[in-house]
């Protein structure tokens, strides 16, 4: 109970300090408690340090509050770090110190971020802390990590997400230069990153205009987001390429559904190949049979009752949108534009669940505007994104009520029998 009380008190630090007239005294009390816990209970101390690190990384503890914490806790963390990388709490302390810009800790954490032999969990935490501190060293080496063939999808995805913290033209430069070398499942995430800031989006549109990238790398929802930008130059570039784009559900999708139903009734797909297509395209937001990301609805038992329902959900995703799946677009005070599903909204923060399952935390005082979209977070136009072969394979996977290879698997109601190959 004592351990839990200490942890809860520390977890309440950002909102309590933000509203208290005795901020310095509150901070002093919590730091004293944390120093005590570090010496007597490493497990609880690790949780407390992780809580502090996340609050610093997300900007919920900053300015004078952060300065006071750093002054009072910095010596203790330096002692932990100086014991060596294998010492208890050394890594946890270094992450906190890196997040608030300590040079010695940053060098150590940077070496871990670039070390291919380090555990993925440590590399991910290192990348997050370096990005929170806007470390130039991470920017300098980002392209090498992204294009390295041995880089895992987890590391690449986390690095792309972390780069959104930097308000720098270098981000768009390195992402565009690395784009062709990225794995196919990382390229959509790279494009999503470049739509977060107007300057990056202009560079992306220039690359499309120069023929370096296909216009199809942008989905219709991203085009709509760019058209809603307050940056007039960016909006002009978008209109030159795409014209006006509807901001509400497109009735013409009914015709697309009829055409796709006819096309798929004349195709035969491979469900095993279709599973790979799902993992690459759909698994960024949806789970099926326990695999994928928990952003949109889990579709093992939902949305696939019949073949017609599956067609509607894939080719007209904005036909029916559950209240909990209405996308929000948040514009921050520094001009960043983030789109995702609302995971938390209170007086301290707004948290969005974005593509790939990452949680983006925006402190309330950095939120300039929040808008609710009339459209699904899932974009229209999959029929243009995938060639007929991949589309047939994907549907051959999705129309089975159990995973491919399961002898009990059968077709959902209304599926053309020829769609799934032997």
What can you tell me about this protein's structure?
The protein is an alpha+beta fold and 422 residues long. Among the domains are: 84 residues, no CATH class; 54 residues, SH3 type barrels (Roll). The chain is 54% helix and 9% strand. It has a five-stranded antiparallel β-sheet with strand order 6-5-4-3-7, with no helix packed on it. β5 and β6 form a beta hairpin. α8 packs parallel to α10 and α16 crosses α18. The longest helix has 20 residues. The chain is globular, with a radius of gyration of 24 Å. The N terminus is likely disordered.
Instruction: Please report the number of helical segments.
Output: 20
Largest sheet: 5 strands, antiparallel
- Class from secondary-structure proportions: alpha+beta
Q: β content, as a range?
A: 5-15%
Largest sheet, spatial ordering of strands: 6-5-4-3-7
Low-confidence stretches: 1-25
Described by the principal axes of the CA atoms, the overall outline is globular
Distance between the termini: 59 Å
Number of strands: 7
Helix content: 40-55%
Mean pLDDT: 84
Task: Give the radius of gyration.
Answer: 24 Å
Order of helices and strands: HHHHHHHHHHHHHHHHHEEHEEEEEHH
Layout of helices and strands, plus pairs?
Layout: H1 2-11, H2 13-19, H3 23-40, H4 42-57, H5 63-82, H6 90-99, H7 103-113, H8 120-132, H9 136-147, H10 153-163, H11 169-178, H12 187-194, H13 198-209, H14 220-227, H15 232-242, H16 253-265, H17 271-282, E1 287-288, E2 291-292, H18 307-315, E3 326-332, E4 337-345, E5 349-353, E6 359-363, E7 367-376, H19 382-385, H20 388-398
Antiparallel strand pairs: 1-2, 3-4, 3-7, 4-5, 5-6
Helix pairs in contact: 1-3, 1-4, 2-3, 3-4, 3-5, 4-6, 5-6, 6-7, 6-8, 7-8, 8-10, 9-10, 9-11, 11-13, 13-15, 16-18, 17-20
